[in-house]
Amino acid sequence: MTQEKFALTYATMFNPPEELHTNYEQALARVKAGLGAEHAMFINGRDHYARRKFESRSPINHSWLLGKFQAGGAQDAQLAIDAAAAAFPAWAATPWQQRVQVLRRAAGIIEERVYDIAAALSLNIGKNRMEALGDAQEAADFFSFACDSLEQHAGFATTMRKDPLLGYNVSNVSTLQPYGVWVVITPFNFPCALTCGPTAAALAAGNTVVFKSAPEAPWIGRLVAECLRDAGLPAGTFNFVSDSESQAARALVKDPRVAGITFTGSYDVGMQIYRSFARGPYPRPVILEMGGKNPVIVTADANL
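RE: above sequence
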């Protein structure tokens, strides 16, 4: 009997094979060897650099310079929306089966790089190896889930029952239609999974995406962008913007060309976005996950 391949999930991570630890340690060594490099944003299929930069250091050890990242501003956000808006008609018109092919490649690439992404997660936001691996693997699973959903529902195009109108042959077709440019703004605590979940869903449905990473986790945003670039997404379909003080984020939220947004973050900012998107000629769709209360009591005898 052949041994079943270990599948990493949050349910299985607590009794992993030794191979998992070996792979993680090797990835950590590879990732550490590349610390300190400058990382670009990704707009319209190309690397994009801002005038201002900022440094990202590890919360594990502040002497570890992870890299230099782009402090994007309003102009960079506008360029990203320009690219996404220009790419939208062609991507929306792409048959859903072809979109699935590209997004399955993205899922495969993330899974191939899951240990390197997990090592970067540990260094960037301080997650232990199991939590980091779970975050990275969930990102790949989100892309697979979006593809599975489209396939299971035949692209969400459903012929309805005929209308009971005597003497007429009348029927309707229900179809899933994309909105346009979709903005994704993510938090620091699950910077990989909570980026790929809404991004995969938006792209699968035919929207184009402008993704803005959390200032605390720009490295993970760049790694996700590289996976989608290497999967062969058309230029402008997915765009990555980083910032250090929310300048780019504010510009994205204010741009009327944005058709919808997914935001994970604080209650105050989330409600501002909600109210802003409700104004205008029509309410634009908003998906919000806002901060809650999650207290943790650490006792004196805790083995940390």
